[in-house]
Amino acid sequence: MNRDNPNQSIRCTVNNCAHHCGDVQYCGLDSIQVGTHEDNPTQPECTDCQSFRMK
User: Fold this and answer.
1) Which pLDDT tens digits describe the chain residue by residue (55 residues)?
2) How many CA within 13 A on the CB side of residue 4?
């Protein structure tokens, strides 16, 4: 992970994530894990970035 080297394949607006790349609105990870907190997700709000780490 490198916050100074944004992964332009992963857009992110979660400023309080440790992987967020500041003003450029990208993630610094090579890849992320996406999961859900629902048994049967039907909307984007049902999914979560499980790579999130608090800044």
Assistant:
1) 677 789 999 999 999 999 999 899 999 999 999 999 999 999 999 999 999 999 9
2) 0
